[in-house]
C-alpha cells in the first residue's frame, strides 16, 4: 500500500535505528565515521523518523514468522510436503504437530525481533525525553511518546502472548536482563496503554494509517484484557468490554461494506474498519507480504498475470476440516480461499504440472494427510489481493486490528458475563457475508452458546480415523465466528488457546502434546547469549 507517512521515512528510520542497536563487547571502539550518536545534532525533521523507525520490525521475515507460528500451529492452515517440495527439513510440520523445539527458526525470529522492536522504542523514547529534537512542540512530543509507548506495549504483548515469562527492558542499558513473569509483563502493558492512549491521535484516516491511533490502542488494550485469564488466571471481561464500548461509541470506526475491502491493494487508507495495519509497497522497497507466493500453484501466474511465478505447486493450504466448519453460503469462503477449477486470464483451463500433469488444475478441499498432498489438494490463499504485475512481495497491506474484532470481543464478553446482546453484534459482522441468504446472517445469543461446527479428529487417507477429544466447546459457535472472520490473519493460535481447544483437540495430523505448548520455548540462542534466562517449563534446552 502506497502510504507516504510510512514509506517516505524508511531511509530516515533505518538511519535512526542504526544509532541505537549496536552492541558493546568491551573492545576498543573503532570509529569509521565522524558521526556518533553522542555527537549527532538532530534536526526537527528527524523527529518523525525517530517515531516511525520503531515500526520497522513489523515487516519482512518477522511478520511471516508470526504468521507461521500463529496459523500453522492452528486447525486452519497446514504446509504439507508435495512432489514439488515444501518439506524443508520438517520445519512447517513441527508447527502443525506441536513438536517444535527451541531451535525452530520462526520461533527465534519473533522472540528476537519483537524484543528488538521494544529496544528501538526505548531508544526513540529516550531521545524525545532528552529533548534531542529542536523546535518540536510539546503536543508533538506528547503524541510521539504516547505512540511509541503503545507500540512498545504491542511488542511486549506479542512476547507475553507467545512466550509467557520474558525479559522486560524499558531503557537502553546494555546489562543482561533477567526474566520478568508473565503477570509482570501483563501489568506493564496495561499501565503503559492506560497512560498512553489518552494522548494518541483520534484520527481514523490516512494521517494515522499504519500507525497506532487511539482506536488501535484501545483495540490492543481490549485484546490484552480479553486474554487476561490466559495470562494471569484472572479474567477481565468488564475491562475488555469498556475498551470496545469506547471504540464503538466514538463513531470513528465501522465495518467496510464488503469483507474484501479490507484486503485490497489500493483504497484502504481511509478505511474505518482497519484500525491498525502493516503497510507494504514493493515500488518503495517495503517488502514482506509473500503469503500468496507460498500458497499458490505456479500456474496461477497466468491467471493473475503476476510478474513473479509462485513457488512450485504451493505450500500453505486450508485444512479441509476447517472449510467444513463454514456455512456453505458464507461469502467468506470465496473471499478467503481460492478453490475449484482454475483458468488463465483469458478463460482457458490451467493444468497440473507435477504429479497430476495434464489434468485440469482444480483445488479440492480434503487433504490426504499432513504428511503428503498432491499438487491440487487444498484450498489456497485468496484473502489478500495480489495486484497485476506483482513481484515476489505483494503491495497489499496486512491488517493487525479490524473493527469487526471489536464487535466480536464485546460479544464474547457479554456471553461470558451472562448478559444479553451478543447475537446482535455477531449478526452485524455476518450481514455482509450472507448477501444471497441474509436470513442466515442472523444469530441469537443462544445460537452462539452452541458447540463448534468444526469436525475435530485425526485424519488419514482423507478420513477422520480418531476423533480424539469430543467434549463440547463452550461458546463454540462464537469460536467458529472468530476463526472464519480472521482466517489467515495471525489470530488463530490465540483464539484457540482462549477457547480451550489448542492443546485438547485433534485435527488433520495433529494430536495433543500437552498444555505447556500454549507458550513457545525460549530460543536456544537467547539462552546461550544470556545465562540469566531459564527455559520455559517442560521444555528441555533443545526440545
Q: Report strand order across the widest sheet.
A: 12-11-13
Content-based structural category: mainly alpha
Number of helical runs?
A: 21
Give the strand content.
5-15%
Largest sheet, in brief, is: 3 strands, mixed
Low-confidence stretches: 2-35
Helical percent range? 25-40%
> What gyration radius follows from the Cα positions, in whole Å?
23 Å
Number of strands: 13
Sequence-ordered SSE layout with sheet pairings:
Blueprint: H1 4-7, H2 10-18, H3 46-52, H4 61-71, E1 77-78, H5 91-97, H6 105-129, H7 138-163, E2 166-167, E3 179-180, H8 182-196, H9 214-226, H10 228-232, H11 237-250, E4 274-278, H12 291-295, H13 301-304, E5 317-318, H14 320-324, H15 332-336, E6 337-338, E7 340-341, E8 362-363, E9 380-381, E10 398-402, H16 403-417, H17 422-430, H18 445-448, E11 457-460, E12 463-466, H19 476-485, H20 492-498, E13 507-508, H21 524-529
Parallel strand pairs: 11-13
Antiparallel strand pairs: 1-5, 2-3, 4-10, 6-9, 7-8, 11-12
Brief digest:
By secondary structure, the chain is mainly alpha-helical. The chain is 38% helix and 7% strand.
Could you characterize the architecture of this molecule?
The protein is mainly alpha-helical and 543 residues long. Helices cover 38% and strands 7% of the residues. It contains 21 helices and 13 strands. The strands form 6 sheets. It has a 3-stranded mixed beta sheet with strand order 12-11-13, with no helix packed on it. Strands 1-5 form a two-stranded antiparallel sheet. It has a two-stranded antiparallel sheet with strand order 2-3. The longest helix has 26 residues, at 138-163. It is globular, with a radius of gyration of 23 Å. It starts with a helix and ends in a 14-residue tail after the last helix. The model is unreliable at 2-35 (pLDDT under 50).
Amino acid at each position: 500500500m502506497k502510504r507516504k507517512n510510512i514509506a517516505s521515512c524508511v531511509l530516515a528510520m533505518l538511519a535512526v535505528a542504526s544509532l541505537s542497536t549496536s552492541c558493546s563487547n568491551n573492545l576498543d571502539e573503532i570509529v569509521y565515521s565522524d558521526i556518533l550518536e553522542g555527537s549527532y545534532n538532530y534536526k526537527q525533521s528527524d523527529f518523525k523518523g525517530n517515531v516511525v523507525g520503531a515500526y520497522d520490525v513489523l515487516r519482512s521475515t518477522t511478520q511471516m514468522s508470526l504468521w507461521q507460528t500463529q496459523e500453522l500451529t492452528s486447525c486452519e492452515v497446514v504446509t504439507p510436503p508435495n512432489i514439488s517440495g515444501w518439506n524443508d527439513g520438517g520445519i512447517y510440520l513441527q508447527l502443525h504437530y506441536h513438536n517444535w523445539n527451541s531451535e525452530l527458526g520462526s520461533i527465534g525470529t519473533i522472540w528476537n525481533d519483537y524484543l528488538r522492536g521494544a529496544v528501538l522504542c526505548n531508544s526513540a523514547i529516550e531521545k524525545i525525553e532528552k529533548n534531542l529534537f529542536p523546535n518540536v512542540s510539546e503536543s508533538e512530543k506528547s503524541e510521539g511518546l504516547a505512540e511509541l509507548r503503545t507500540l512498545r506495549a504491542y511488542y511486549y504483548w506479542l512476547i507475553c502472548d507467545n512466550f509467557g515469562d520474558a525479559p522486560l527492558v524499558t531503557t537502553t542499558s546494555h546489562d543482561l536482563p533477567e526474566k520478568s513473569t508473565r503477570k509482570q509483563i501483563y501489568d506493564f502493558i496495561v499501565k503503559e496503554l492506560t497512560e498512553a492512549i489518552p494522548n494518541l491521535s483520534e484520527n481514523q484516516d490516512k494521517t494515522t494509517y499504519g500507525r497506532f491511533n487511539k482506536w488501535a490502542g484501545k483495540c490492543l488494550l481490549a485484546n490484552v484484557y480479553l486474554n487476561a485469564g490466559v495470562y494471569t488466571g484472572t479474567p477481565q471481561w468488564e475491562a475488555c468490554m469498556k475498551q470496545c464500548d469506547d471504540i464503538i461509541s466514538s463513531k470513528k470506526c465501522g465495518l467496510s461494506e464488503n469483507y474484501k475491502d479490507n484486503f485490497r491493494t489500493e483504497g484502504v487508507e481511509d478505511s474505518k474498519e482497519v484500525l491498525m495495519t502493516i503497510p507494504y509497497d514493493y515500488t518503495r522497497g517495503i517488502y514482506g507480504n509473500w503469503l500468496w507466493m507460498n500458497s499458490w500453484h505456479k500456474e496461477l501466474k497466468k491467471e493473475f498475470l503476476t510478474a513473479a511465478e509462485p513457488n512450485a505447486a504451493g505450500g500453505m493450504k486450508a485444512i479441509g476440516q476447517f472449510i467444513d466448519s463454514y456455512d456453505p453460503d458464507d461469502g467468506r469462503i470465496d473471499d478467503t480461499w481460492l478453490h475449484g477449477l482454475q483458468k488463465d486470464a483469458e478463460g482457458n483451463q490451467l493444468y497440473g504440472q507435477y504429479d497430476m500433469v495434464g489434468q485440469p488444475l482444480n483445488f479440492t478441499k480434503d487433504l490426504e494427510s499432513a504428511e503428503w498432498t498432491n499438487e491440487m489438494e487444498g484450498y489456497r490463499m485468496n484473502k489478500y489481493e495480489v495486484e497485476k504485475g506483482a513481484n515476489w512481495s505483494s503491495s497489499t497491506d496486512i491488517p493487525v486490528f479490524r473493527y469487526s474484532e471489536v464487535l466480536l470481543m464485546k460479544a464474547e464478553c457479554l456471553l461470558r458475563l451472562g448478559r444479553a446482546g451478543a447475537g446482535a453484534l455477531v449478526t452485524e459482522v455476518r450481514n455482509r457475508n450472507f448477501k444471497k441468504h441474509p436470513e442466515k446472517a442472523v444469530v441469537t445469543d443462544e445460537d452462539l452458546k452452541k458447540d463448534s461446527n468444526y469436525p475435530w479428529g485425526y485424519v488419514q487417507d482423507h478420513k477422520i480415523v480418531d476423533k480424539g477429544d469430543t467434549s463440547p466447546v463452550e461458546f463454540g459457535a462464537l469460536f467458529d465466528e472468530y476463526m472464519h472472520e480472521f482466517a489467515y490473519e495471525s489470530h488463530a493460535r490465540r483464539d484457540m488457546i482462549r477457547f480451550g481447544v489448542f492443546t485438547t483437540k485433534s485435527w488433520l495430523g495433529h494430536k495433543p502434546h500437552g498444555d505447556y505448548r500454549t507458550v513457545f520455548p525460549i530460543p536456544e540462542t537467547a539462552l546461550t547469549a544470556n545465562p540469566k534466562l531459564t527455559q520455559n517449563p517442560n521444555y528441555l534446552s533443545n526440545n
